[in-house]
Every structure is written in structure tokens, then in C-alpha cells.
Design goal:
Layout (H helix, E strand, L loop, with lengths): L1 H7 L4 E3 L2 H9 L7 E3 L21 E5 L8 H14 L4 E5 L5 H10 L6 E5 L3 H10 L2 E4 L9 H8 L3 E5 L15 E3 L4 H12 L2 H18 L2 H19 L1
Parallel strand pairs: 1-2, 3-4, 3-6, 4-5, 6-7, 7-8
Helix pairs in contact: 3-7
């Protein structure tokens, strides 16, 4: 009720994805007041591609370690991936309440030698991890308002595998800027990762297209310009 009361009385309401705009419309917020403006990322200085990317069959997950992030399904997929790519390894960058459960699952799958829990990584250090990864996986389930970490990875020209959540649809188009899979499906996740590890040209094509896409939409100057234009428009209506 509080959200509806505030939003319906606002001259403009910004949300970071189309899926969140849909949620606001369900609260009877007028569509003309809703503006989708994503969060921005430094794609010029920080999250940029490596001069030369070397294949080492490295997978990366970066984010909070919560049930919603679906990391357990990535761990379940890892033994399947290892059958096809015996040198594969996984870095899990992040911390959270599920860490111990995930470490236990790694041990149950016999994947201890392949998985590194890197803990919480400072934002300025993330780009180096992206540049060393062959594939970055985002196995989130249930809900994801906006995948900021996904934008960072694409900014570094990473090939990505993501789940089919509405919040991801603003960032990744299946087969064009990444690969999209069903949620909670380790077999499909493994299949997509194996496909990328086996095809360097596909990885490069998706990485280049992903970088181009996010640079056009999520770079800080572009996002700042959208907010500037909206504030000027609202101020103009009130004068």
C-alpha cells in the first residue's frame, strides 16, 4: 500500500528493468509515469576486454551466495561438464548464507579440486576475474530485478550463460549476446557451457556482441544522460 501511495503520486518513477515496470503497472501506477532507466557500469575504464583472451577452460560465478542465485545448479552441472572437459575449473566469487551448503555440495560431487571459493571480491578486482574466464554463468532462480554483474561481465566480452528470468531479458538475447537456459536445470546448464567451451568462435562472437550491446545501453554517460533528460522534463512540466 505504501509503495502504491508513493508511486501513484509521483511525477515520474524510475525502475531498472522492464519486468519491474510491469510490477508497477500492477500497482495501478500510470504507464506514462514509469521510466525504465537501468543501473550504469563503467565500461570505458574498468570493465573492458582483455587485449588477448587465452582459453583455460575456466568458469566463473560472481555474486551473492544465496538460494535465489541458483549456484547449487551450477555445482550440480560441473561433473557433467568435467566429463567432456577434464581440465575445467570454477571460481565462485562472493559470500553469503549459502556458502557452507555450497561447499558441502562441492564435496559431495567430488569437485573440491576444481572449485575455488574466492570469497567477497572488491568491485575494482572483478574485471580481472572476468578477463580470465572463458564462460561466466548466472544461474539465478525465481527473480532478478537487474543483472548488474552480468553487464560487467559482458563489458569484458565474456561469453555468458544465464537463466530465463524477466530481469535478464533486457540484457541478454539468446544466441546473440549470450545463451539463455531454463531455471533449475543442471543438464541444460551443462549443455550450454560445454557448447561454449567447445567452440572458441562462438564464445568470441557472443562476447563481442555482448560488449557492443551493453556499451550502447549501460555505460555511465548514457545512463546519466537519461536521468538528466527525465529530470529536465519533469522540471519543465512543473514550471
Amino acid at each position: 500500500m505504501l509503495k502504491r501511495a508513493v508511486a501513484t503520486r509521483s511525477a515520474a518513477v524510475t525502475v531498472v528493468s522492464r519486468s519491474m515496470a510491469t510490477d508497477l503497472r500492477r500497482l495501478q501506477v500510470p504507464g506514462a509515469a514509469i521510466h525504465v532507466i537501468p543501473m550504469g557500469v563503467d565500461l570505458q575504464q574498468r570493465f573492458c576486454p582483455a587485449p588477448r583472451r587465452k582459453s583455460a577452460e575456466k568458469l566463473l560465478y560472481a555474486g551473492r551466495l544465496t538460494e535465489q542465485k541458483g549456484v547449487r545448479y551450477l555445482i550440480d552441472a560441473l561433473p557433467i561438464i568435467a566429463e567432456s572437459h577434464p581440465k575445467v575449473s570454477l571460481i565462485i566469487a562472493g559470500d553469503g548464507q549459502e556458502k557452507q551448503n555450497l561447499q558441502k555440495k562441492v564435496a559431495e560431487r567430488g569437485m573440491q579440486e576444481r572449485v575455488v571459493f574466492a570469497g567477497a571480491v572488491k568491485n575494482e578486482s572483478l574485471a580481472a576475474l572476468y578477463r580470465k574466464a572463458d564462460v561466466v554463468v548466472f544461474p539465478s532462480v525465481e527473480r532478478e530485478g537487474f543483472g548488474l554483474v552480468l553487464v560487467e561481465a559482458l563489458g569484458c566480452e565474456c561469453a555468458t550463460v544465464v537463466t530465463d528470468l524477466p530481469g535478464m531479458a533486457d540484457i541478454v538475447t539468446d544466441g546473440k549476446t549470450g545463451l539463455v537456459i531454463p531455471q533449475k536445470n543442471p543438464e541444460r546448464l551443462a549443455e550450454s557451457v560445454i557448447r561454449l567451451l567447445s567452440d572458441p568462435q562462438l564464445r568470441a562472437r557472443l562476447g563481442h556482441a555482448g560488449r557492443r550491446h551493453v556499451a550502447q545501453r549501460f555505460d555511465w554517460p548514457i545512463v546519466a544522460g537519461q536521468y538528466r533528460d527525465l529530470i529536465n522534463a519533469v522540471a519543465g512540466r512543473g514550471s
